[in-house]
Specification:
This protein is mainly beta and 560 residues long. The protein is built from 3 helices and 43 strands. The relative contact order is 0.06.
Length: 560
C-alpha cells in the first residue's frame, strides 16, 4: 500500500509493526540505520546495525525503549503499536561512497468497542420531544461515526422531531477517540414496540467496517382514544342464575385503571376498577350497560339479555283421584324465547299432552312436563305429577266346564286400586280355598282362578277387599255331572270378556242337522223330538228341576 506515493504499513493498535527495508543491500555495505522524522522534519535515529561486526545498537529514545528489533536483513519491528507510532520511518544503508534511503509510512488502527445506548428514557410520551438515550462507542482510532436506526431503517434528523448530536472526545494519553451521539425523539403511537439501535462506522487495516449496538424497545405512553365494554365470560346467551362480569378497557398506554359503570335503573355511574361483577343475575338485569372514563369523556355500551324460563304445572306433586272422575291438567310456560314443551310418562315420551275426562286405572303413573330453550345452553325446567287412580273393588265371576269333563274353572275378575286382596269361600263349610291362582295385576285389573270338581251343586263366593271397600259376589255352580258353559272364560291378562264364537257355530250346525233329519219323520214324532230338544236346552242352561230346587233351597239358606 502507498500513501502519497510512499510505502505504507497498516498496523493494529497493540500489535507488532513490521517494516522491511525495501532497499537492495549494496556491495561494500558498512552499516544500516533506521530513523523517523519529527513533524518539523528533523530526524531521530533509533536503531543501528553493523554489517561487519554484526552488532546491533538502539538509540536512547524513551518512546521506543525495549520495543525495537532490527533483523539481519534490516527489517525493523516495533512491539505494542501505539497511536504515536504513526510516523514516517526511513531505512538507511551506508557504504563508503553512498547513502541510500527508503521511507515507510506507518498507520495505526483501533477498532472501537461495541456501541451502547446509555441514559435510556424510562418511557416515551407521544407529542413530546425528549431524550431517548446516548449511543457511546469507546477507544476508536481513527475517529468513527455514529448512525441511529429504528426498526432497521436510518433515522434522519427532522426538525423538532428527530434531533441528533454527535460528540467526539480524544484520550490525551492514548490518543483514542470516544464517540457519543445523543438522540432526542418525538414518538407516535405507532412507535410502540419499535426497536431502536445505533451503529458505529470506523476504519480498520482492511477498510471501512461497522459495529451495531443491541436493540432497545421503549414503552411509549399515549392517551386513551377509545373505550370498549365487554361481557365476560364471552357467551352468546346469558340465563338467570349466571354470574357475569363487565370489563371496560381503554386503548391508551398505560391503560386507564378506573372507570364509571352505568347500570340500568341507576342514574349515576358506579366508580370501579376495569371490571364490575354481578352474581346470580335475574331477568330484570336485562338492559343497556355503559362504561366511561372517570371524566365521562369517552363511553361505550352493550346490551345484555338475561334469558328466563318459567313452568307452571297444575296440579303437581302427588294427586289421588277416583276412577271415572275428570282431571283437568295444564302446563303453562313463560320464557324469553319460544320454548319447546314435551310430556313424559313413566320414562316414555308422550305424543300428546295428557287429558283426563274419565280417569281409568291405566291413567295412573308419573307424569313430567318438561320444557327447554334450545338456544340457551342449560336452561330447562320440569315439574312432576304423580297420579294415583283409586277405585273400590269390582267383581265379575265366570264359570266353565273343562274339556276333560272332570273339573270346572271358576274365575273371579277383579278391578280396583289399591290392589284388592281376594278370598274364596264355598257354601256350607265357609272354608277359605287357598289353591287359587292369580294373574298379573295390570292397570288395576287381575283375575283369581280356582278349579273344582263338585259332587253336588255348590255356591262359590269371591271376596275382594282394599282400603276403600269390601265387595262380595257369589256364583252357583252345578255338580260336575252337569256341564256348564253359561259364562265364557276371560282369556286375556287385562280381564276383557270374549265370547267363544266358534263353539256357538258348531252347536248351530249340529242343531240344524238334527232338525233336517226330524222333518223327514213323523209329524208327531217330530213334535215330541222338538219338545225333548227344547227340554235339553233348558236343562243345559238351568239344570234339571230337582237340581234347580236344590239350588234354590241352598240360595235361600245362604240368604237367610
Amino acid at each position: 500500500p502507498l500513501a502519497l506515493g510512499l510505502y505504507t504499513v497498516n498496523a493494529v493498535y497493540g500489535d507488532t509493526i513490521t517494516m522491511p527495508c525495501r532497499l537492495e543491500v549494496p556491495d561494500g555495505l558498512m552499516f544500516g540505520k533506521w530513523k523517523y522524522e519529527m513533524p518539523n522534519g528533523s530526524p531521530v535515529f533509533i536503531a543501528f546495525r553493523s554489517s561487519t561486526k554484526k552488532n546491533v545498537q538502539y538509540d536512547d529514545v524513551p518512546d521506543y525503549k525495549d520495543r525495537l528489533s532490527l533483523s539481519e536483513n534490516y527489517t525493523l519491528s516495533i512491539k505494542n503499536a501505539r497511536i504515536t507510532d504513526e510516523k514516517r520511518f526511513v531505512c538507511m544503508l551506508v557504504t563508503e561512497d553512498d547513502v541510500s534511503e527508503e521511507p515507510t509510512i506507518v498507520k495505526v488502527f483501533k477498532q472501537p468497542s461495541q456501541p451502547e445506548i446509555l441514559h435510556q428514557a424510562d418511557f416515551l410520551e407521544t407529542e413530546k420531544l425528549q431524550m431517548l438515550g446516548e449511543c457511546v462507542a469507546r477507544d476508536s482510532y481513527p475517529e468513527g461515526n455514529v448512525t441511529w436506526y429504528k426498526n432497521g431503517r436510518v433515522l434522519q434528523p427532522v426538525e423538532e422531531a428527530v434531533v441528533i448530536n454527535l460528540q467526539k472526545m480524544v484520550n490525551k494519553s492514548t490518543g483514542l477517540f470516544t464517540m457519543t451521539s445523543s438522540l432526542q425523539y418525538m414518538p407516535t403511537k405507532e412507535d410502540a414496540n419499535a426497536k431502536f439501535s445505533c451503529v458505529v462506522t470506523y476504519y480498520g487495516p482492511s477498510g471501512q467496517k461497522t459495529i451495531q449496538s443491541e436493540p432497545v424497545v421503549f414503552d411509549v405512553h399515549y392517551p386513551t382514544e377509545k373505550v370498549t365494554i365487554q361481557v365476560l365470560p364471552q357467551s352468546s346467551t346469558i340465563k338467570e342464575g349466571d354470574n357475569i362480569t363487565l370489563k371496560c378497557s381503554g386503548n391508551g398506554n398505560p391503560p386507564p385503571q378506573e372507570f364509571l359503570f352505568y347500570i340500568p335503573g341507576e342514574t349515576e355511574g358506579i366508580r370501579s376498577s376495569d371490571t364490575y361483577s354481578m352474581t346470580d343475575v335475574r331477568r330484570n338485569a336485562t338492559g343497556e350497560y355503559r362504561c366511561s372514563l372517570t371524566d365521562k369523556s369517552m363511553m361505550d355500551s352493550t346490551t345484555i339479555t338475561v334469558h328466563y324460563l318459567d313452568l307452571q304445572l297444575t296440579p303437581s306433586g302427588e294427586v289421588t283421584k277416583q276412577i271415572g272422575e275428570a282431571l283437568p291438567v295444564s302446563c303453562t310456560i313463560s320464557s324469553s324465547r319460544n320454548a319447546t314443551v314435551f310430556w313424559i310418562k313413566d320414562n316414555t315420551r308422550m305424543q300428546t299432552s295428557p287429558s283426563f275426562s274419565s280417569l281409568q286405572y291405566q291413567d295412573a303413573g308419573n307424569y313430567i312436563c318438561a320444557t327447554t330453550l334450545q338456544e340457551v345452553e342449560g336452561l330447562q325446567k320440569r315439574k312432576t305429577l304423580k297420579l294415583i287412580v283409586e277405585g273400590k273393588p269390582q267383581i265379575k265371576m265366570t264359570k266353565k266346564t273343562n274339556t276333560n269333563k272332570m273339573s270346572k274353572t271358576i274365575i273371579c275378575h277383579v278391578e280396583g286400586f289399591p290392589k284388592p286382596a281376594v278370598q274364596w269361600t264355598v257354601t256350607g263349610s265357609g272354608s277359605i280355598i287357598n289353591k287359587a291362582k292369580e294373574t298379573r295385576y295390570v292397570n288395576g285389573k287381575f283375575s283369581s282362578k280356582i278349579v273344582i270338581a263338585p259332587e253336588e251343586n255348590v255356591t262359590l263366593t269371591c271376596i275382594a277387599e282394599n282400603q276403600l271397600e269390601r265387595t262380595v259376589t257369589s256364583l252357583n255352580v252345578s255338580a260336575i255331572s252337569i256341564p256348564e258353559y253359561d259364562e265364557p272364560e276371560d282369556r286375556n291378562d287385562d280381564n276383557s270378556e270374549k265370547v267363544n264364537d266358534q263353539a256357538k257355530l258348531i252347536v248351530g250346525i249340529v242343531v240344524g242337522l238334527l232338525l233336517a233329519a226330524l222333518v223327514a219323520g213323523v209329524v208327531y214324532w217330530l213334535y215330541v223330538k222338538k219338545s225333548k230338544t227344547a227340554s235339553k236346552h233348558v236343562d243345559k242352561d238351568l239344570g234339571n228341576i230337582e237340581e234347580n230346587k236344590k239350588l234354590e233351597e241352598n240360595n235361600h239358606k245362604s240368604e237367610t
